[in-house]
Amino acid sequence: MRYRRLGRTNLKVSVVGVGTWQYGGEWGRTYSQDEVDRILSKAKEVGINLIDTAECYGDHVSEAFIGEFVKKDRREDWIIATKFGHKFHENFQRSQLWSPQEVLKQLEDSLRALQTDYIDLYQFHSGTDEMFDNDDLWTMLEKQVEAGKVRHLGISIAKNDNLHQTAAASKVNAKTIQVVYNRLDQTPEERVFPSCIEQDLGVLARVPLASGYLSGKYKPDAVFAENDVRNNHDPEQRLQKLQQVEAIKREEVPEGMDMATWALVWCLKHDAVTCVIPGCKDEKQVVANAKAAEYVSDDHPQAWKM
């Protein structure tokens, strides 16, 4: 495994993390605690130390799985990143909660679910600019940092060209940006990444495998399970993506290299990107994702200097 400095947090994070949206049940299957324990144990075995989750991956369901695992492990070995701003409801619906009082309750609920006294990275989760521009919210959050319940604040931007929130990160004492970035969607390179580099913000690249399209497993005529989130994607755009993936696999991926590994390495080569956070459905995928670190050089601007 390789490690990088997560911007001004100075946290030492593995270049590959574990995304845990799937544990909330929206990717076509449900998980047991035993399955999650095995996945996270394998992650630790291969050197991964960052877990990314959110209060609305289920109603704190993903957080609760993680909390049960970490309770049996060493809390200090993990960097736990979670998010705030949404409330999960039945049938995978969500409402938004952005007042300081509501977010404070979410924080307490997350701490309980995670069975921890502190959260390493607490992220504003895909809110509008209007919700972001609330000084009272950030004042309350800074008090939680001072109280030790949160180590660092971050922003997970909904639109991957949102310069408004990115440029204001330092102002609200946020030290990281989470953004969609992958070979099929390079938008952050235009405006968001230059701002991150200027402010020395850590960057977590989410959806690095483009919702699994860049795994190379799916042909253009692929059919997804009825409750798979990819069924919500526009059919025409889904077909275009799968056709583009076929061309990329043929023209860009080195012979003998797994396409998913290549796709993660592709993200990690950008100077702004600290870590990729692909989802892992089982131990085999954890190992496959971690292989990307073997192709990462030590001359990256955020490479951890021992």
Any overview of this molecule?
There is one protein chain. With 306 residues, this protein is an alpha/beta fold. It has a single domain, classed as Alpha-Beta Barrel (TIM Barrel), CATH 3.20.20. 34% of the residues lie in helices and 18% in strands. It has ten helices and twelve strands. The strands form three sheets. The protein has an eight-stranded parallel beta sheet, covered by helices on one side. Strands 1-2 form a two-stranded antiparallel sheet. Helix 1 packs across helix 2, helix 1 (33-45) runs parallel beside helix 10 (283-290) and helix 2 crosses helix 3 (100-114). The longest helix has 17 residues, at 235-251. The mean pLDDT is 90.
Task: For the structure shown, list the relevant keywords.
single chain, 306 residues, alpha/beta, TIM Barrel, two-stranded antiparallel sheet, 10 helices, 12 strands, 34% helix
Helix content: 25-40%
Class computed from helices, strands and strand pairing: alpha/beta
Question: What would CATH call the homologous superfamily?
Answer: NADP-dependent oxidoreductase domain
Element-level helix/strand string: EEEHEHEEEHEHHEHEHEHHEH
Strand order of the largest sheet: 3-4-5-8-9-10-11-12
Give the CATH topology.
Answer: TIM Barrel
Low-confidence stretches: none
Quick description:
The protein has 306 residues and is an alpha/beta fold.
Write the layout of secondary structure elements.
Layout: E1 3-5, E2 12-14, E3 18-19, H1 33-45, E4 50-52, H2 61-72, E5 79-84, E6 86-89, E7 93-96, H3 100-114, E8 119-125, H4 129-132, H5 135-147, E9 150-156, H6 163-167, E10 174-180, H7 192-199, E11 202-206, H8 235-251, H9 259-268, E12 275-277, H10 283-290
Parallel strand pairs: 3-4, 4-5, 5-8, 8-9, 9-10, 10-11, 11-12
Antiparallel strand pairs: 1-2, 6-7
Helix pairs in contact: 1-2, 1-10, 2-3
